[in-house]
Structures are given as structure tokens and as C-alpha cells.
UniProtKB/TrEMBL annotation:
InterPro entries linked: Aldolase_TIM, NadC/ModD, Nicotinate_pribotase-like_C, Quinolinate_PRibosylTase_N_sf, Quinolinate_PRibosylTrfase_C
Gene Ontology biological process: NAD+ biosynthetic process; quinolinate catabolic process
Pfam families: QRPTase_C (PF01729)
Designated name of the protein: Nicotinate-nucleotide diphosphorylase (Carboxylating)
Gene: BNA6
Family to which the UniProt record says this protein belongs: Belongs to the NadC/ModD family.
Annotated keywords: Glycosyltransferase, Transferase
Domain Quinolinate phosphoribosyl transferase C-terminal: 2-81
Length: 81
């Protein structure tokens, strides 16, 4: 898949979905990495993901990110979807 999108001229990062088959997460994530795709994150504890409802509940993206940083610490990546 990565080879096909590169041949088509796509220069971005191809990442797998967060959804995996129960019991097969490690195998599926490994397959994506071997194939050249990004695994996005291994599990819910790998990164903080802020979605529209988080932004709405805080009033702004800035406030949502600030709240996430306050509890996540410096080592976790924060992604706003």
C-alpha cells in the first residue's frame, strides 16, 4: 500500500487505523510497521487524543490542549483530531 501511494505521488505519512482485531493488535501493528506505514499509537496510553467533544467541553482548542498537558506530563504526545 505504501509503495502504491508513493508511486501516485503522495508524500504524506500513511498511518493505520486505531481499530484492531481483538487479540491481534501486536501482529497488526507489526504488519503496518514492516509494510512502511505508521502505527499511529499502540494503545490508549500511548498518546492523548483530543476530539471535537473535548474541544467543545473546554471552549477552545487552546484550553483543551492546556488541560491535557496539565495531566499528561511532558512525555506524552497530544494530538488534536
Amino acid at each position: 500500500m505504501v509503495r502504491l501511494v508513493r508511486q501516485a505521488g503522495y508524500k504524506g505519512i500513511l498511518a493505520g487505523t486505531r481499530k484492531t482485531t481483538p487479540g491481534f493488535r501486536l501482529v497488526e501493528k507489526y504488519g503496518m510497521l514492516i509494510g512502511g506505514a505508521d502505527a499511529h499509537r499502540m494503545d490508549l496510553s500511548s498518546m492523548v487524543m483530543l476530539k471535537d467533544n473535548h474541544v467543545w467541553s473546554r471552549g477552545s482548542i487552546t484550553e483543551a490542549v492546556a488541560a491535557a498537558r496539565a495531566v499528561a506530563g511532558f512525555s506524552l504526545k497530544i494530538e488534536v483530531e
